[in-house]
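Researcher: I'm comparing several assemblies side by side, and this is the next one on my list. It has 336 residues spread over two chains. Same procedure as the others: predict the full complex and return the structure.
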Amino acid sequence: MAVPAPTLSERLMNWARLKSPWITVFNSGACNACDIEIIACLIPRFDVERFGILAKGSPRHADILIVTGPVTLKQASRLRRVWEQIPEPKYVIAMGACGADGGVFHGLYHVMKSVESVIPVDVFVAGCPPRPDEIINGVVACLNLMAEDAKHGGRAWSRKIPAGAGSGEVVPREVVL
Amino acid sequence: MNEPLTLNFVTETMKDFGTAEQAGRGRIRIVTTSGRIRDAVSACWSKLRCDHLITISSADTSTTIELIYHLTGPHRTVISLSIQVPKERPEAPTLSDLLPPAGILERQIHDLFGVVFTGHPGLKRIILNEDWPENEFPLRKDWKPDPDTFYGGLKEEGL
């Protein structure tokens, strides 16, 4: 099914989003090593701001949410609430071994299984903690995903469609302005 | 003025509350009971110049829960007051009116071990999540997470 051609304002918004993604970091119970590596991204040695990547304090200004650490039971509802505040289109990067499956905290009485059991995750960055260049690599992978989604007109093309839920056609996007 | 306390001096001063022993260099341990802990802390404050509560450590010894109050002062000697409370009825008097920082430590111990500190003004949850079930104390040795119990957080959703 053909995707409707994007309007000028949509093309402009997609271009701006790819040129300068704004990021918010949420610590859902990490040991702070991942957070220190994110700070290392911001200092002059790596300086991600020269690529237009800007760390924002508020999730309402962000395009990408970086989640560090396993999700403790106390943080799970908070993480969900932060994720719901981000405007569409939103992307989630789960950092480190803890973000993927709990890491050394896997199976503890006080943590959820993974970040993905609370919110949908687009990119996993491996490492404990990941190096700053690996974090930048993860953000670039997320930007490639954003570019693909913009080309296909929404995120539906990459989503798994449950069995018996339709013909498998790409659903046309909802234009939200 | 600020010389370390000697074992003889501490033994003499605290002889009403239990026997003192040298637990290490600069550390003196006194085993007392939960009924005398408030008087013992007051005596430490007034006679031994222990004006600083470092922490309250707690351990599960299968039949009792051991609480150790670590106090120090300008003399830099650590006085450890140890009490045992029975596990069936874990109750200890609060120290939050004598030493206000004890209040938050007692809330932690109440949360994780289930010790009830009588007289505490606000014994609420502090570490565990708000929807954690009652009467589940995860740091007790005989506690195991029950796979059928919902311990709060979010239910898994098919995302």
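Model: For your comparison table: Helices of chain A lie at 8-19, 33-42, 73-85, 96-101, 132-152.
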